[in-house]
């Protein structure tokens, strides 16, 4: 019999969102008439913008003609999309990022997990707590941790607590770490990082030879001009950071799939012999071997996100979800709930009612109001006593959810 990767057996139960889905399905099976509103997983609900659909239609037509048909594309992504991203997302903000440093992929969830292929097993890792579970689970799978304790914290990982007490801004690790995951705007707390905060991390990483894995999947929701959209807005970040971005939450691509990872050519790691090695070359090698690129049609759609019409339509989408966040936030505050996030981010992070743990509140909301959210403890031990509501839903559902919350908690 072949050996399995025993690290998988260290993983706690199921992945968070399927686990929620399982509980919701069980509830719906037992309560067939319940009109359940789902504000759990952050999955977009509004249609793809017209500019993007039009570009995809033309790309499909190109694929129907022998002169313009395309087979395998470049594993790193088509130049037209990498150039549009470099110009619009980075260079326009003063970030020195070239198209060759951008790798197109089918998702940031995959990339934040896959990136571990190119890093040594002995690296120490720090994560914010609460945290997007993918960062932790993929490190467990890769064997970088021991077992989980009774709070779900894995031996060997450094957890950086983010609670209301520190304004959801973690302190630097007490012991130097090799890899640090930062997510801003943050999933799940909806907090943001100022320039000063990011500078502190970049300086720390450069001083300690650490690499920051910066997840900016929600950058489009930043409404405050003083908040950086990219870690490369900070001097020195080219030498210590990889950035992940996605078309999922801004342009509605959760089902369509397109994302990007930036690996600057100036970023270095160390070989077992202590020699310096360019990380970009390793990621390029990894992608060329294990990935065959995102479909031409989808990349043309993503490119259209940067057209004038595309930008305008995406702005409308973002404003729509942010308005949802504000409706949820005001509704919760009107019944005395302590609310965080939801201003520069599509997630509302709230304190559960006195004495109620996160999963108890989950069951209470589902049972009494037929509402689904995400228990804070599902994102880590420091999320206990908190709860996340997603602003990704129709306006009618968000308004109905607020009415139900008011009746239940008012
Ligand atoms: C979430 O709800 O945290 C996100 O939808 C998960 C994801 O983007 O993979």
UniProtKB/TrEMBL annotation:
<dbReference type="InterPro" id="IPR004839">
    <property type="entry name" value="Aminotransferase_I/II_large"/>
</dbReference>
<dbReference type="GO" id="GO:0030170">
    <property type="term" value="F:pyridoxal phosphate binding"/>
</dbReference>
<feature type="domain" description="Aminotransferase class I/classII large">
    <location>
        <begin position="35"/>
        <end position="405"/>
    </location>
</feature>
<comment type="pathway">
    <text>Amino-acid biosynthesis; L-lysine biosynthesis via DAP pathway; LL-2,6-diaminopimelate from (S)-tetrahydrodipicolinate (aminotransferase route): step 1/1.</text>
</comment>
<dbReference type="InterPro" id="IPR015422">
    <property type="entry name" value="PyrdxlP-dep_Trfase_small"/>
</dbReference>
<dbReference type="InterPro" id="IPR019942">
    <property type="entry name" value="DapL/ALD1"/>
</dbReference>
<dbReference type="GO" id="GO:0009089">
    <property type="term" value="P:lysine biosynthetic process via diaminopimelate"/>
</dbReference>
<dbReference type="Pfam" id="PF00155">
    <property type="entry name" value="Aminotran_1_2"/>
</dbReference>
<keyword id="KW-0663">Pyridoxal phosphate</keyword>
<protein>
    <recommendedName>
        <fullName>LL-diaminopimelate aminotransferase</fullName>
        <ecNumber>2.6.1.83</ecNumber>
    </recommendedName>
</protein>
<keyword id="KW-0032">Aminotransferase</keyword>
<keyword id="KW-0808">Transferase</keyword>
<dbReference type="InterPro" id="IPR015421">
    <property type="entry name" value="PyrdxlP-dep_Trfase_major"/>
</dbReference>
<dbReference type="GO" id="GO:0010285">
    <property type="term" value="F:L,L-diaminopimelate aminotransferase activity"/>
</dbReference>
<dbReference type="InterPro" id="IPR015424">
    <property type="entry name" value="PyrdxlP-dep_Trfase"/>
</dbReference>
């Amino acid at each position: 019999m072949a050996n399995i990767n025993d690290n998988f057996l260290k993983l706690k139960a199921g992945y968070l969102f399927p686990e929620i889905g399982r509980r919701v399905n069980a509830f719906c099976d037992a309560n067939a008439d319940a009109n359940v509103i789902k504000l759990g997983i952050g999955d977009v609900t509004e249609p793809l913008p017209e500019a993007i659909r039009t570009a995809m239609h033309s790309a499909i037509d190109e694929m129907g003609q022998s002169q313009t048909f395309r087979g395998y594309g470049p594993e790193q992504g088509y130049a037209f999309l990498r150039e549009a991203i470099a110009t619009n997302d980075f260079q326009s903000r003063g970030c020195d990022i070239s198209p060759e440093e951008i790798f197109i992929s089918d998702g940031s969830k995959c990339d934040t997990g896959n990136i571990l292929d190119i890093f040594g097993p002995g690296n120490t890792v720090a994560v914010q707590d609460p945290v997007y579970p993918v960062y932790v689970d993929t490190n467990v799978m890769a064997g970088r941790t021991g077992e989980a304790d009774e709070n779900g914290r894995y031996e060997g990982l450094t957890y950086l607590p983010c609670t209301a007490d520190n304004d959801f801004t973690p302190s630097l690790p007490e012991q130097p770490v090799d890899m640090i995951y930062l997510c801003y705007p943050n999933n799940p707390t909806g907090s943001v990082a100022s320039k000063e905060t990011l500078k502190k991390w970049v300086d720390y990483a450069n001083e300690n030879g650490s690499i920051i894995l910066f997840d900016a999947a929600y950058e489009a929701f930043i409404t405050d001009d003083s908040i950086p959209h990219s870690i490369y807005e900070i001097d020195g970040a080219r030498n210590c950071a990889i950035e992940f971005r996605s078309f999922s939450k801004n342009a509605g691509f959760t089902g369509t799939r397109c994302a990007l990872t930036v690996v600057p050519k100036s970023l270095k790691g160390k070989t077992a012999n202590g020699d310096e090695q360019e990380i970009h070359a390793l990621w390029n090698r990894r992608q060329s071997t294990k990935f065959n690129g995102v479909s031409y049609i989808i990349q043309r759609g993503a490119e259209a996100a940067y057209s004038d019409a595309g930008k305008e339509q995406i702005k409308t989408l973002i404003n729509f979800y942010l308005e949802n966040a504000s409706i949820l936030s005001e509704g919760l505050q009107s019944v005395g709930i302590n609310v965080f996030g939801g201003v520069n981010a599509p997630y509302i992070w709230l304190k559960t009612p006195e004495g109620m743990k996160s999963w108890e509140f989950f069951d209470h909301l589902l049972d009494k109001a037929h509402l689904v959210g995400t228990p804070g403890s599902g994102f880590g031990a420091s999320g206990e006593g908190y709860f996340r509501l997603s602003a990704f839903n129709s306006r009618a559902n968000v308004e109905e959810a607020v009415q139900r919350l008011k009746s239940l908690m008012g």
